[in-house]
Every structure is written in structure tokens, then in C-alpha cells.
Amino acid sequence: MMSAALLDFPPAGPSARDLMERALDPHVLLGMPHLNGNGLSETWLMKELGHRHWLMLARHLGLDNADFRTADGEEAYAAICATSLTDAHFAIVQANDILTIHSKLSAVSRTRTSTRHELSLHGRSVGAVELISTFVHRTIKDNNHSIARVTLPERQGRRFQPSPLAQNAVDIRNGRLGTHFGFSVLAHRALRTFKFDPSASQEFNGAGLFYFAEYQALADRALENWFPCKGPVVRKDVFFLGNIERNESVFFDLIDFSDEQKTVHGQLRRENGKVIAKIFARGHIFAESSSRNACFVSFETEKDNGMASGARLMRRAASDLVDDKWR
After folding, report:
1. CA distance linking residue 134 with residue 113, whole number of Å
2. I need a labelling partner for 124 at 20 to 30 A (CA). Which of 76, 189, 256, 259 fits?
3. Is 317 within 8 Å of 223 (Cβ atoms)?
4. CA dist., res. 137 & res. 135, Å (int)
5. Domain 22-152+162-177, what architecture?
6. Which residues have C-beta within 8 Å of that of residue 269, sequence separation ≥ 6?
């Protein structure tokens, strides 16, 4: 008599599609990974929304995961080409808050996609973010300077929705946008420059590209160095124009700023001068304080025949600054 062996099969785990839906849950319990000294971390937020953007795009294209491929099977990437943060109130966000992210995807054109993300705490808005992406690939293997656009097979019958951010990105890339945030977009002469040597293990993503969320992070490091009392950002637009290789230095140039308007215009570039991002921000460049000894920062720029000949950074810091609340 034959005895039947009982086979113990482990239960099947969730599919990639199931996990993709879970990752798009609108509610996030916040803790230390999501926060910084000024409230909600903008860098974490951009990484999270970039992940959601790619998953939403994959779902929109009917894929089981975000493995994007060209018609001939070549690997492609949904590269972020512009981001816009508006009406940010990140300072009120604390640990154990529940951040709600309501997201919507729309096709801007045959090659560009927009996702808009409304952020709230218990029904109170704390900001909104729009991301624009386009599909790219490397025309030269392992060469980040060779990134170029590529068209993927698309769904039929798509309706395109206009996006001012996407249009601004196109106009900046083509040199057609004259001003943004009141600054000349075409201006390139730097008041000050900060050099970075990005880490391949920290600031590049799994595709080997300089991660889009790190562009604004490096800009913030430079601005905090020059403006030690810089308060939280209220609005920020970033337009991405290129990438860098591993072990390549990148430079942030302060192009212009307005203390009155609380706005800044800067750019990230390679050592050869190639601009890889234009960054425009509005916020509290100088932290407001009732203290007479509050930190103060200013630039004095002298001009000779229309050419900037020098800049001077002056700083006075008070010992009680840490007790003042940044607004």
C-alpha cells in the first residue's frame, strides 16, 4: 500500500501588481525617515512622489511593475524633467502625523506625463507637487551624458491635458522663456558658486543616474551655507536639463536673489559649464525674528560696466538664534 506524502507548500506571496497598489496607498504614518529639522523632508517627499509617479505611469500603461521598455526591448527610464512645489507648509508636520497624498495622472503629450499630488494633514493642506516626466535611454552604454528621449509604445485614445509647468520646461530647454519668478532665465553669471562631489552610494539611483531629488538637496546645502538663517521653502520649481557621471563634480551657482520678494534663482552645472538644472525658489531667505540680534545675511555686488566684479558675504549670528522660531 502506497502512502501519500503530504507536501507543505508555502502560501503564495503578493504579486508585484498587488504591492504596486499598496505603495500607492494615500496615507503615510510619518516618522524620523520622513522628517528633518524644519518639518517634512522635501528630499524624502520628492523621492516618495517620484516612486508614486513611476508606479502610476506603469499602471496607466497596463504594466505589472515599473519595468519600462522600448519597442525593441531596451531598458528605458521615466526621467523627471520638471518639478513644482507650491503652497508648502512643511514646518507644521510632526512625527506620528498621518500625511495624506491624493494623486492624479494626466498625459501632457505623446512623450510627457504629469502627476499632481495634493498633500494634507487631517484635511488641512500642507502643499501640492507636480512632476513631469519623459522617457529616456542611454544612447551610449553606461554614459550618463548620452541620455536622450525615446518613445515607448503608448495606449490608444489618450487625451492630453495642458500643463503650464510642462510648457515652461520645454520653453526653458529651448531658450524661449524670458523670465521666471521675476528673474531672467537666460542669466548665467554667478554671484557665488558651491562645489559638490556627489557620492555614488548616496546620490545616484539604481539606474546609475544622479537622482532627481538630489538636485534640490544640493541646492539647499549651498543656500544654507550662504544664508544660515534661511527659513522653509514655500514654492520651488526645478527644471532638469542633464545628468552627470559618477565621480564627476557638480557646481551650484547663485545667479540672483531678492530679499524683498524672498526668491532665489540658481543653477546646477558640470565643470565644463553645461547647465543640468535651473532652480527657482520662494520662501524665507532670512528667518524672521523679533530678536534684535537675529541672524542677518546679505550680499553686496559691485558692477563695473555691467559686469559683476565681486560679491561679499556678511554674517552676524546671535547666540540666541536657536531659540527663535523660523517661519
Report:
1. 7
2. 259
3. no
4. 7
5. Roll (3.10)
6. 250, 251, 253, 275, 276
Neighbours of 126 (CB within 10 A): 20
Q: What is the DSSP string of 78-132?
A: EEEEEEEEES--GGG--TT-EEEEEEEEEE-SSSEEEEEEEEEETTEEEEEEEEE
The domain ranges of the chain are 22-152+162-177
Alpha-carbon distance of 229 to 219, in angstroms, equals 15
Phi first, then psi, for residue 21 (nearest 5°) are: -65, -40
Exposure string for 26-52, b = 16+ CB within 10 A, e = fewer = eeeebeeebbeebbbbbeebbbbbbeb
Q: Which residues contact 272 (CB under 8 A, 6 or more apart)?
A: none
Distance of CA 183 to the CA centre of its chain: 20
Residue with cell 507636480: 130
In this structure, are residues 243 and 292 in contact, taking their beta carbons and an 8 Å threshold?
A: no
Residue recorded with cell 518639478: 83
Nearest to 76 by CA among 153, 13, 167: 153
Helix/strand/coil for 36: strand
pLDDT tens digits in sequence order for the chain, 327 residues long: 555 555 666 777 888 888 989 999 999 999 999 999 999 999 999 999 999 999 999 999 888 888 888 878 888 889 999 999 999 999 999 999 999 999 999 999 988 999 999 999 999 999 999 999 998 888 888 888 988 888 876 665 668 899 999 999 999 999 999 999 999 999 999 999 999 999 999 999 988 899 999 999 999 999 999 988 777 899 999 999 999 999 999 999 999 999 888 999 999 999 999 999 999 999 865 555 433 344 444 444 433 433 343 333 333 332 232 223 222
Q: How far apart are CA 284 and CA 280, in angstroms?
A: 13
74/70 Cα distance (integer angstroms):
5
User: How far is 240 from 219, CA to CA, in rounded Å?
Assistant: 13
Which positions ≥6 away from 221 have C-beta within 8 Å?
A: 194, 196
